[in-house]
Amino acid sequence: MLPAKVNIVEVGARDGLQNENAVTLADKVRLIDQLSLSGLKHIEAGSFVSPKWVPQMADSEQVFQQIKQQQGVIYSALTPNLAGLERAIESGVKQIAIFGSASESFSQKNINCSIAQSLTRFEPVIELAQQHNIPVRGYLSCTMVCPYEGEISATQTTFIANTLFDMGCYEISLGDTVGKGTPNRVEALLSQLLQQLPNDAIAVHFHDTYGQALANIYQALLMGINTIDSAVAGLGGCPYAKGASGNVATEDVLYLCENLGIETGVDLDAINRAGWQICQSLDKQPASKVALALGDPNSL
Ligand code: HMG
Ligand code: MG
């Protein structure tokens, strides 16, 4: 049965812009401020990773300083280690996310350590966050397919997702990092995982490289998942996942949910406007089919 309501986690300002070189601090702040007025309740606004690894996110301190935070909206950030968490705390961040991988090769490429080392590294991060009453979200990449290893078993992903949950993550966001998943794989993964974790502890984070994200989300919705990560204008990609393109577009998810009778609380027109505007700064078209169908409201 489909859920009556979904939570959208807007990741465009992080997952999207971590992949863009031509974006200014002012563009980021304007995008987040626009998203803040759309009804979204969770916006991932930055990433306190090594600036040597991802220079595009090096200004996350300034982003958090300059955005106008609206009441009732969570502004979260990625923190791969204690150094990242300390920077986030200094910036007054109220919610963080750690990010691991279900595939060994991707773990090495993305965070320069094995899965086991990453879990050890996350322990003090979760502990310090808990001391500061900062909820921790756990991302898991390559939950179905890895760009280096191919198919990842549902058993492997379930085991690591469960471990992150037991370590104190309130929610595990399942990444289809390279967008190669299909509904049958989503079904196989969620069937196993839902035997161990409640549906409200699971989110889906699907990239749309192969055009499967909406079909995969529909499958997840049918199985009771009610938190969806998406990126305005379909921005996104991971610099350490060869061939990964953008996240599923928020506009497309909103259109799907609205027409399925699922409440999102988010204003599609406001997202569409913000999407066209950031794309104008990036000198590209939105990757969202719905945005293209609706057209650019800023040019009317
Ligand atoms: P490392 O090189 O092994 O770390 O990287 P290190 O501890 O040896 O540090 C190297 C240098 O970075 C040192 O500086 C540190 O001080 C500095 P140096 O002494 O050389 O001058 N450093 C930092 N500086 C600022 N903030 C920090 C920080 N940490 C170290 N937090 C590390 C390990 C994890 C740091 C690195 O691999 C890294 O930052 N990786 C992040 C990669 C990334 O951001 N990928 C994209 C996000 S994940 C994603 O997109 C997937 C997701 O969307 C889900 C999905 O789609 O699947 C979430
Ligand atoms: Mg991602």
TrEMBL record:
<keyword id="KW-0456">Lyase</keyword>
<feature type="domain" description="Pyruvate carboxyltransferase">
    <location>
        <begin position="6"/>
        <end position="272"/>
    </location>
</feature>
<dbReference type="InterPro" id="IPR000891">
    <property type="entry name" value="PYR_CT"/>
</dbReference>
<dbReference type="InterPro" id="IPR043594">
    <property type="entry name" value="HMGL"/>
</dbReference>
<comment type="similarity">
    <text>Belongs to the HMG-CoA lyase family.</text>
</comment>
<dbReference type="GO" id="GO:0006552">
    <property type="term" value="P:L-leucine catabolic process"/>
</dbReference>
<dbReference type="InterPro" id="IPR013785">
    <property type="entry name" value="Aldolase_TIM"/>
</dbReference>
<dbReference type="Pfam" id="PF00682">
    <property type="entry name" value="HMGL-like"/>
</dbReference>
<keyword id="KW-0479">Metal-binding</keyword>
<protein>
    <submittedName>
        <fullName>Hydroxymethylglutaryl-CoA lyase</fullName>
    </submittedName>
</protein>
<dbReference type="GO" id="GO:0046872">
    <property type="term" value="F:metal ion binding"/>
</dbReference>
<dbReference type="GO" id="GO:0046951">
    <property type="term" value="P:ketone body biosynthetic process"/>
</dbReference>
<dbReference type="GO" id="GO:0004419">
    <property type="term" value="F:hydroxymethylglutaryl-CoA lyase activity"/>
</dbReference>
